[in-house]
Amino acid sequence: MTDVSLERWRLILGEPAAGCLGGLGGESAQRDAALEWLYGRDEELGRRDIRRDRGSGPSQLTTVDWLDGITRLFPKETIERLQRDAVERYQIDDIVTDPGVLERIEPNPALLRAVLRTKHLMNPEVLRLARRLVEAVVRELMERLATEVRQTFTGARSRRASRFKQARDFDARRTIRANLGNYRPDEQRIYVQTPYFSSRTRRELSPWQVILVVDQSGSMLSSVIHSAVTAACLWGLPGVRTHLIAFDTQVVDLTSDVSDPVELLMKTRLGGGTDIARAVRYAAQLVEQPRRAIVAVVSDFFEGGSEAVLVRTVRELVEQGTLVLGLAALDEQADPAYDRDCAQRLADAGAWVGAMTPGELAAFVAERVGR
């Protein structure tokens, strides 16, 4: 089925319309399944002897699966309507109205994502329970990532020579380069006369700004979560000042909440349009010492604003000496889905574009601040 209007009618009417309008495939079939999960329980359809479903077996979708699915398959306005119908029309209590579910369920990242998507629909009691769930999952992420970040920064080396000759600080590359004149071809050995050691950067770090600019669109939810946790882990490290900026078509500076990722996530608004250029322009205004700043833009790069302004702003940042990262994903899987054409234009303007795990981002920052 290729006619968009016919496909929409098919989704509205369900399986009974297949004989006239044809079948569905790909994401359209997934949309139909999501609509059937919700609206197929309508008692009025049974009284009128109408079925939306394609079979008599029970649905295998869980509520969390359904929430994940509609976020991927529908625009923001439709998602909000589906969630509202689920709560108000069909009383699917385990989404937002049944505190017992949140009390019994095991905290996990998938449920955290579901809570963040629906928190605007929760009553105060459920919101309080949901916050405890968010705290549990974030605490686990913090413990895991904080250890990784500390190890990364402990091991970051500067280019300064060290007076302390410890094996762990041995600079093999510089030592080999400096002693190449002592190479004996017949023995295939280099005799080291002068070993070199590098100091490790800790409290002696020169100050750097790390500005995380995070897309709040629904498809970036995992990256939003890990950006909040990463910013909290970077916060307070010697030599690093962290900023966190969230955006859709508006820009919100969340730096004051960086040290509390739970509070930060509970304030996050998911969905809406995307104006990356506006957010990057705001970040550019925060830069104090261009050659001591990293601007990391976490987005899928589907620009709803002016792509020309975005590219020009990135180029200006790069030309003044600021490191610009374009991260198509920032989570444990680092599995990106993004606008490759826009990302390529940013790379041509001088940005580093790719996908990273939070640990890889920490390593990138540590390597730069250690210079």
UniProtKB/TrEMBL annotation:
PANTHER family named in the record: OUTER MEMBRANE LOLAB LIPOPROTEIN INSERTION APPARATUS (PTHR30634), OUTER-MEMBRANE LIPOPROTEIN LOLB (PTHR30634:SF16)
Entry-linked SUPFAM superfamilies: vWA-like
Domain VWFA: 207-366
Organism: Actinoplanes sandaracinus
Full protein name: VWA domain-containing protein
InterPro entries assigned: LolB (IPR050458), Uncharacterised_CoxE (IPR008912), VWF_A (IPR002035), vWFA_dom_sf (IPR036465)
One Pfam entry name: VWA_CoxE
Transmembrane segments: none
